[in-house]
Amino acid sequence: MHVSRQQPRTLKHRLWVAFLVVPPIVFMSLFVVYPILSAFAYAFYDWQGLARGEFVGLKNFREVLFGATMAPVVWNAFLHNVYALIALMIIQNGGGFLLAWLLYKEPFGFRFHRIAIFVPVVLSTIIVGFLWKLFLNPNFGIINQALYSLGLDSWARPWLGDSSTALGALILANAWHFVGFPALVYLAGMQRIPPEVIEAARLDGTNEWQLLKTIVWPLVAPSTTILFTLLFIGAFNWFEIPYVMAGLDGSPFGSTDVLGLVFYRTAFGNQSASIQNFGMGSALATLLFLFIVVFASMLTLWLRRREIQF
Amino acid sequence: MTAVTSDTPATRQAVPFVLLAQVILIANSFIMLYPVVVMVLSGFKTTGEIFEHPFALPDFTQVGNFAKVLGETAMPVYFVNSVLVTGTSILLILVLGTMAGYAVARYESRTNTFILLFFLAGLMLPLKLAVIPLFILLRDLGLLDSRWSLIVTYTAIGLPSTVFIMAGFLRTLPAELEDAARIDGASEPRIMWSVMLPLARPPMAIAAIQNAVPIWNDFFFPLVFIQTDARKTLPQGLTTFMGEYTTDWGMLFAGLTIAAAPITLLYIALSRQFIQGMTAGAVK
């Protein structure tokens, strides 16, 4: 092949290549690989604050999954992560797909709409969280104000203070923040479909719905694979929006509690109580880690199978 | 791409459908932009005005809230910290990522696949979950509660995707370029620096943008690592700020506007590069 691929392996050459690869690998080993491996090990020890105590085997895991104090909190939070995943799959990724299809037709104002869809994506989650918290304020927020001015007084409520609406409000804020991402990834996927395929289908008299179902959706499968996997990882790592909008305790009454909040509380302490439990925190992180890795891999493999090469 | 308006049979569509699509897109753009507009407008209002006329246009000469946020709060300090942390992280990510990507792409060796897989693993694993050992490691290194704690963490998170972008691009450059330089007697470092890297600016820009937005916006790691107010970054500082002014909504909205302004304005100016950079990993 090329001359460059058959370089004489002189000492000088080897040193040069080592100079290129060793620093990045050392960096990754120290700050990614070592912490991740340690996280597993830490879960098997008892901790007194920042000091590692004795080896306790699976005690921390038992406590997290079945213990009287931790388990109800953990399972309640896990359920909320699952709700968020399903709701975001429909609203955020499904909405993104439909918006992409509308944009794909390059209607009037295409550029403007494409920029507008992506504006919230570049904002910090913290800004988005605070913004919607102010908008949802029961007395002065614009959401209730708008409902009053439309005469829909009975619809107005303390959205974040009501345990039946709080989680839904957080999910909608998240969807508002991120819907632009799947929209533009799907748009890029659609633009790679050979135009002849769509034209041929239209000539055959395929209607809009059939076209989407039988041609566009299967052909953007690679985009779906990556978007669903990212959403899965994101939904089980969910932390910022609940933290800012509902608080560290997942108020009201734990109705917005998610695993990210439970993990942070367990590991780095409740602001009021100031307790740190690194052992239990590590056990929770390890379980979540394994859960994400196993299910995200299965999801990816399953979604890959339906991808078509063209 | 063909436009909808062109009159070939394949692209001609029913008029009601085109109208519906247009209505949905306009409604969506309104939903995406209106909250941002309200945020900016409310920054020009007093708290009383926000409560009484939430939808009214303000008198834009009232810049008191903005002056107060910039002059009397710690927001400028948070801003400088964010610039320092993001800038240094991006620099480190580009230097280390280009080094590894270059070695993998341009020098054949038995360990290439292993190195690439090593970085691929880092791409899939959420480092957020390894924050406890990272916390202890940074404490042992004496980096806790310093900007460096964030810089090394962000560099570690950003490296894998950058190695992939750089390796993927550098692989496409023709070997003849290298060979010609080699025949002229150029050393390997010289070939990398003067021949190959000048060609690699576009993927570097993509990698920089792809990493800059999440680093600039990150909240989790500062929350865990930084205690001292003078070292907080913008998203973390914002929580302090919002906690202090809970009842002064004019100030709150002005603060949010100032925090959102730099990246939003940059995005509007460079939207194409931003979209390309942030969706690069998923589109490839």
TrEMBL record, chain A:
InterPro entries assigned: ABC_transporter_permease, MetI-like, MetI-like_sf
Its membrane topology: Multi-pass membrane protein
Keyword Transmembrane: yes
Domain ABC transmembrane type-1, first and last residues per copy: 74-299
Classification via PROSITE patterns: ABC_TM1 (PS50928)
Location(s) in or outside the cell: Cell membrane
Keywords: Cell membrane, Membrane, Transmembrane, Transmembrane helix, Transport
Transmembrane feature ranges: 15-45, 82-103, 115-135, 166-188, 215-239, 283-303
PANTHER family, sorted: ABC TRANSPORTER PERMEASE PROTEIN, INNER MEMBRANE ABC TRANSPORTER PERMEASE PROTEIN YCJO
Similarity section: Belongs to the binding-protein-dependent transport system permease family.
The protein, known as: Sugar ABC transporter permease
Natural source organism: Microvirga terrae
TrEMBL record, chain B:
Annotated keywords: Cell membrane, Membrane, Transmembrane, Transmembrane helix, Transport
Topology within the bilayer: Multi-pass membrane protein
Subcellular location: Cell membrane
Alphabetical list of InterPro entries matching this protein: MetI-like, MetI-like_sf
Domain called ABC transmembrane type-1: residue spans: 79-270
Bilayer-spanning residue ranges: 17-41, 78-102, 114-136, 148-170, 191-213, 249-270
CDD domains, per database record: TM_PBP2
A Pfam family this chain is assigned to: BPD_transp_1
Family: Belongs to the binding-protein-dependent transport system permease family.
The protein, known as: Carbohydrate ABC transporter permease
Source species: Microvirga terrae
